[in-house]
Amino acid sequence: MPLRIVPAILLVLLLVVAGGAIRWWMTGDESPPPAFAGSAACAGCHAAEYAAWERSQHALAMQPASQATMLGRFTGDSLSFDGQAARFHQQDGRYFVDASGADGKAATFELRYSFGLYPLQQYLVPLPGGRLQAFGIAWDSRPAAAGGQRWFDLYPDQKLLPGQPLHWTGIDQAWNYQCADCHSTDLRKNYDAATRSYASKWSEISVGCEACHGPASNHVSWAQQGRLRRARDPARGLVVALDERQGVSWNRGDGPTAARSVPATTSREIGVCARCHARRGQFTDTVNAGSDWLDGFRPALIEPGLYHVDGQQREEVYTWGSFMQSRMHAAGVSCADCHEPHSGSLRAAGNAVCAQCHAPATFDASSHHHHEPGSPGSRCVACHMPATTYMVVDPRHDHSLRIPRPDQSVSLGTPNACGNCHDGHDARWAAAAIAGWYPQRKPGFQAFAATFAAADRGDPAADAALAALVTDAAQPAIVRASAIARGARSGGPQWQAASVAALGDGDALVRTAAAEGLRSADPALRAEQLPKLLADPVRLVRMAAARSLAGAAESRLVGSEVQQFKAALAEWTAAQQFNADRPEAMLNLGSLHLERGDADGALAAFRDALVLDPAFVQAAVNLADVQRATGDEAGAERSLRAALSQDPASAVVHHALGLSLVRQGRTREALPELRMAHENAPGDARFAYVYAVALHDSGDVAGAIRTLQDALRGNPYDRDIREALAAYGAR
Questions:
Q1: Do residues 155 and 284 share a domain?
Q2: pTM (2 d.p.)
Q3: Which residue of 185, 502, 511, 600 has the smallest Cβ count within 10 Å?
Q4: Phi and psi for 556 in degrees, rounded to 5?
Q5: Would 670 be classed as within a structural domain?
Q6: Would residue 67 count as lying in a domain?
Q7: 3-state secondary structure of 165
Q8: Residue range 345-361, pLDDT digits in tens
C-alpha cells in the first residue's frame, strides 16, 4: 500500500494515542488530566475528518428518539412476539410499543433511543433501576428489494418468557452492561450493588472522536492558544501515532505479495479498535483509548463454541480474534489499511481494497480464483473472508483472511467458503477441485486446526502438539494463548513446561493465558513461577497471576511477593465488583472465597448470583456443593431442584441432583436424574461414565456396557470409560 503523504502537523492531529489519552507532546508546564471535550470541539480544525465521521455509523450508533433517528414504521404495525402481538406506534413525537413486560402482562412501553443503523436498528426501553433494555424486535433497515423495511424478531426460533435472560426485559438485554460501552463515548456504567440499580452516564451519546482518540481537552486548549510547541519527547519526534505507517512500502504489481519495509512497532491502533471489535469482557471503565487495552478488557481466545477448531468464526466474535490469526496481521497490516477510520467505509470498493497491496494481474484473475470475472466467486472476500449472518440479517466477514480448506471440512468438519456458494456439492468435491487447481498444496497460514481438534477429543498426543504451538514464535499470539487455554483441561507435562516458559513471553495475551492455565498446577510450582507476574505492566496479567496464586499457593509467598499479591488480587476483586450486575462475577467471587476457605463468603456470593439471574445454573450447582461440604445435603437438594425449575433441561443440574440423591441413599430416585444428564448432554464423558456406573450398580450390566460403548465412540481416549468398560466386560 502506498504511504499516504500527509503534512506533519496533520499527522499529529490524526491518530496520536498514547498512555491513556491523546498526548499531543507539547513542552511547557504539566497539563491537568485531560477531560472529554466532545466531537464538536474537533470540527473547527479537522473539518474533513469530522464530516466523514458525521455520516458514519459510529456517529449514529445511539440517538435520542426522534423523527430523524427512528427508522422503523410506527404506524400501528403489529408482529407476533413470544406468543403475543407487539404493536409499534407514536404519539406527540414519542415512540411506543405495546408488548408483554417482565410480569408477562401486556403494557405500553416508550422507546427512548434508537440503537444502531444498518442493516438493522434496535430500540431501547427505560425500565426501573436505571436500566435501558434492548427490545427483541428490530427494524430491518435494508432496502425493500433486499427483503428489508420490515419488523422482525431477533430470536425467531425461541419463545422467550419473562424471567429468562434473553427475554427483552432480562439481564442479557441490559444496555448498561451488554452494549453501552461500545455505542457511546466515555461511558460510566455506575452500577450500585446495594440498590441493584444503574446511574449510567456518557459524555457523548454515540461513538465520538474521543472514543478512539482519548479525552482531548488539553489538546483543544493547546489548539486554541494558537501556537505549536516543540515535542515533549524528542527521542520519538513530533509524530508518534503513525509509527506503524512510517517506512512502509507496498508492492503494487512487481511481485506476488505485499510486504512492509519496516516492521510495525506498536499494536496501538489495533488495540483501540479491539476495545469494541473484539469478543471481550470489560472490567473497568476508566481506561481510555490509547492505553493498553488489556488494562481494561479480557479478550476471548480461539475457544470451542466461539470458533471452529481451525479458527473460523462461529459465534459473534466481532472480527478482532479472526484478524489476529491472519497472515495480514503477521505482515503488519492494520485496520486502517483497509478501513478509513473516520467514515468507517472501505478505502476502495470490491476487490480494489485488496488490490492496494495484491497485484490485480496476479490475483484478480481467473487463473487465481478460477471463477468467471465479475461473478460472486471472483470476489476476494467470497473465498478469503466468508460471511456468517448474525441477528438474522447482519452478515459479518471472517477476518482471518484464510485460504479455503475443504479438505479440513472432510477431516475435521469445519466449514469452507466453497460450500457457501456450491451447496449442491460436498466438501470432497471442493477439495478435489482445489487440488486440481493447485497441485502444489497451499495449506494456508493457520496451522493449528488438527492440534486443536485432537485436544478437543482428548487425544494424549495433543500434549506435545499444543506445547509445540505454545513455543513456536512464528505462531500468532492469539494462537499460542489459545493453545495454552486448550491444554489446561488435561495439563500434560509438555504443555505445562511450555506454559511455564510462556510466563516470560513478550506478549501480554500469552502471559495471561499461561498464568490462568497454571491455576490447577501444583501449589509449589505456582508459588515458584507466578510471583514474577504480580508486578507485570499489564493489569490483566497481574490479575491472572494473583487469581492463580489464591488459595493453597498464596501461603508460600515470601517477602515483597506478599504485598504484590495483595495489590494484584485487589485489582482482580475490583474487576469482579465492577461487574457486580452480572452473575458470572458473583460466581467468580464465590469460587475465590471457597478456595481461600471462606464457606460463608462463597455461599453469599453464589446466592447473589442467583438473585441476579435465577436461571444461572452454574451458581446453583456451586451453591449446592458448598452446602453439601458444610453438611447441608437437604439444602443442596433444594438448591438444585430450584435450578431445575428455571432450566428443566440442564444436564449439569440433573447430574448434580443425581449425585446428591445417591449420597442420601436414594438410588432409585437418582437413576432418572443421571439418565437425564446423559441424554441431555450425550457427548459429555463424565455424565456418561457416572450414569453407566449407576446402571451397573442397579443390576443393569448390559445397559452399563452399552452406555460406555456409545460414550467411547465420542470420547475414545477417556480413561475412566475405558477402564470401566474393561472391568464390566471382564466380569
A1: no
A2: 0.91
A3: 600
A4: -95, -5
A5: no
A6: yes
A7: coil
A8: 999 999 999 999 999 99
- Closest to 310 in 3D by CA, of 383, 396, 388, 411: 411
d(CA 126, CA 18): 36
d(CA 298, CA 305): 17
In the numeric block, the cell 496481521 is attached to 329
3-state secondary structure 664-695: CCCHHHHHHHHHHHHHHCCCCHHHHHHHHHHH
Q: Among residues 198, 233, 260, which one ends one of the domains?
A: 198
Return contacts of 582-588, CB within 8 angstroms, 24+ apart: 582/171, 582/177, 582/612, 583/171, 583/608, 583/609, 583/610, 583/612, 583/613, 583/616, 583/619, 584/609, 584/616, 586/612, 586/619, 587/616, 587/618, 587/619, 587/622
φ, ψ for residue 425, nearest 5 deg: -125, 150
Span 609-630, pLDDT tens digits:
999 999 999 999 999 999 999 9
Contacts 24+ apart (CB under 8 A), 489-494: 489/455, 490/455, 490/458, 490/462, 490/463, 491/517, 491/520, 491/521, 492/460, 492/462, 492/463, 492/464, 492/466, 492/467, 493/463, 494/463, 494/464, 494/466, 494/467
Q: Which domain, by its residues, includes 284?
A: 268-429
Evaluate the omega torsion of the peptide bond into residue 119 and state whether it is cis, within 30 degrees of 0: yes
Task: Note whether 306 and 279 are within 8 A (CB).
Answer: yes
Task: Name the residue among 117, 63, 111, 107 with its Cα closest to residue 91.
Answer: 111
Whether residue 317 lies inside any domain: the answer is yes
Cα 219 vs. chain centroid, distance in angstroms? 33
Domain count along the chain: 2
Instruction: Examine the domain organization and report whether 185 and 291 are in the same domain.
Output: no
Neighbouring residues of 222: CB distance < 8 A, sequence distance ≥ 6: 24, 26, 229
Amino acid in the structure at residue 313: Q
| Spatial separation of the C-alpha atoms in residues 356 and 346, rounded to whole Å | 11
> Which residues, at least 6 apart from 610, have a Cβ–Cβ distance to it below 8 Å?
583, 616, 619, 620, 623
Residues 82 and 181 in one domain: yes
What is the separation of C-alpha 478 from the centre of its chain, rounded to a whole number of angstroms?
A: 13
Cell of 141: 433497515
Residue where the block lists cell 506445547: 467
Domain assignment of residue 172, yes or no = yes
Q: What is the pLDDT of residues 374-384, one digit of tens each?
A: 999 999 999 99
Last residue within a domain, chosen from 429, 454, 480: 429
Count of all residues that appear for the chain in the document: 731
CA 326 to CA 311: how far, in whole Å? 10
27 vs 709, which has greater pLDDT?
709
For 140-194, the pLDDT digits (tens) are 999 999 999 999 999 999 989 999 999 999 999 999 999 999 999 999 999 999 9
